[in-house]
């Protein structure tokens, strides 16, 4: 009995000793080979800097700034965002940082793992932030907030900090890694197009309709004559018609209510 107890105690001690080693042995995200480092960050959703999964980010910024990046996501993928913020040494107090992820409709996506809002002491030289998103679904009900294929936005900023520490320089290292296969989704639906197309900051989409030269030649002057006329249901047509009717009604009313003059002309 004593031998069995000693054996159980030895196995328990071995398990406790191996647990930290197993946790430390967990793979950490690494940049894709040959990926170009992104050295910029946007300050708004519209100006978010586009990046691809596995593309490392290294930027210098100021404490208190909102930093935005955008990346595409396909159905079946699971994305993990890891960031390290190198802090200034002359800080006066603790600071709390956060990384948030939004889909193309600006809906905040929940994190299933990672230190999304860690706090760094005044003596800390850096703070590690992480967020693992849910698997992107190929389709979802309109009322749900499930992640769908399209563009996703990452926002990193500080949420609590002493006022004297605002504006201090920081260095941010960020990486968006992808696990899972876009072709192995078990859902039986499919989204016809991405919820929001990939973001291309600084480009303007041409939404003006173009007319083929052949059609313009065939229509001749009729196209140029009718092109500037308002439609039959336009508010300009109704406003003009109402004004004309009001003028006619005024003239008719004045003619009906006008009294003849009763003055006599001296003979």
TrEMBL record:
The chain crosses the membrane at residues 236-256. It comes from the Bacteria. This is Peptidase. Residues 1-25 form the signal peptide. Keywords: Membrane, Signal, Transmembrane, Transmembrane helix. The lineage of its organism: Bacteria, Bacillati, Actinomycetota, Actinomycetes, Micromonosporales. It comes from Micromonospora phaseoli.
